[in-house]
Write a structure and sequence with these properties.
This is Succinate-semialdehyde dehydrogenase/glutarate-semialdehyde dehydrogenase. Its EC number is 1.2.1.16, 1.2.1.20, 1.2.1.79. GO terms for molecular function: glutarate-semialdehyde dehydrogenase (NADP+) activity; succinate-semialdehyde dehydrogenase (NADP+) activity. It comes from Saccharothrix ecbatanensis. Keywords: Oxidoreductase. α5 links the parallel β5 and β6. By secondary structure, this protein is an alpha/beta fold. A seven-stranded mixed sheet has the order 12-13-14-11-10-15-16, with helices on both faces. It has 16 helices and 18 strands. It folds into two domains: 254 residues, Aldehyde Dehydrogenase, Chain A, domain 1; 172 residues, Aldehyde Dehydrogenase, Chain A, domain 2.
Amino acid sequence: MTDMRVEALDVHSPVDGQLIGWLPMATDEDVAGSVLTAREAQPGWAATSAAERGAALKAAAQAIRTHATDLANVIRSETGRPFASAREGVLAGVSTLEQYAELGPVHRGRSLLGAHDATDLMVPEPRGVVVALTPWNDPVAVACGLLGAALVTGNAVVHKPSERCPHTGVLLAQLMVDHFSPGVLQSLTGDGTVGAALASSPHVDVVAHVGGTATGRSIAAACAATGAKALLENGGNDPLLVDADVDPVWAAGQAALGAFTNAGQLCTSVERIFVHQAVSDEFLAALCEEARRWNADPQPLVDVRLREHVHAHVTEAVADGAEPLVGGAIPERDGAFYPATVLDRCTPDMRVMREETFGPVAPVRVVPSFERGLAEACVDEHGLAATVLTASMAHAQQAWRALPVGTVKVNAVFGGAPGGAAQPRRKSGTGFGYGPELLDEMTAVKVVHLGQIQPSSQANRAAS
């Protein structure tokens, strides 16, 4: 029998390379039709009360919570992320939707003090049609942030999940779509060509993208041509500074957590480490022990393509003089596994220090002073996040003011209060990605002046 299926996305397990399944690729007609449907549905959704939109979002969050285990299992099969961590990400997405369900109805404009016989207002309005292009490394949590903020403010959304986790995106859409008016939320599957077609549509008002830098730049160019707003988080090259006055064993635990969690596949993973020479020997010894512990229960990278990218960074660094203390070699086993790797003697010109590796690699540079480490950490084309481990309040103050990034964490590689939002800089993107500020990104302010009709001079004379 002839295979009649359309062009498809084949998804393979990162654990053993076996085919998990396939999904049809959206066509140009699918893209155009989805955008048109969203355009037609959006005015009615915008006219729905903010309270009703919030209630719909809350119902969608509950549906996702009910099926959190199902989503976590799909994420694990497609991306290799451990079940517990995947489920934690799903529940983080639920919390984000619930947060926006509460924040949306109280999102407000303001009045202006004008003439006594007039009213002046600044009113937030939905921008229109939002395209959300979301990644594979934390697919539900990230998608819920963008979808939640866009929907609760009255926009219609066309969502395309990463081609590395399309089944996750399909299930998420199935759980959410029925809670909104027809056409308000749609999901398309496809690779980068589908994302590019959505981003370049002249009928789209916002393109929100979380993913790679090169893709982000092409989206920014497309938005410059169409006039759409680009909302981008494009990864980073996040530094970790280890001061001379901290416990080097504790610091190594923090470094390992930042570099090896989710096999280094987080936007805010630690990508380069600057350690004070006074504690460098103990720090490196402890970091190597941490790496061996992480390697005892390895997690695969999402696919072999990413592993090739990671290994290229490592092999180039070794060729240029870096010393692999742990890891650094592709294991002889099925799947896309790569070991937690510690590199000593790294220099600023190495690609592993200049670019986002996005794998379980900890490149270490020993520096003679905190000031030297801070100066080198500030030299980067990205600007997402940074971490500083120090017992000195003066050094903490100096560092958070100097580091040209959107988020600075002192004495913890992860963490932060709910609702926090930051603006990535330079190659890392533009615009707020979370928090109440994301509601501002999804709306445009309209200034309204309501004046009174003044009686004409003729009418005044006739009345007299």
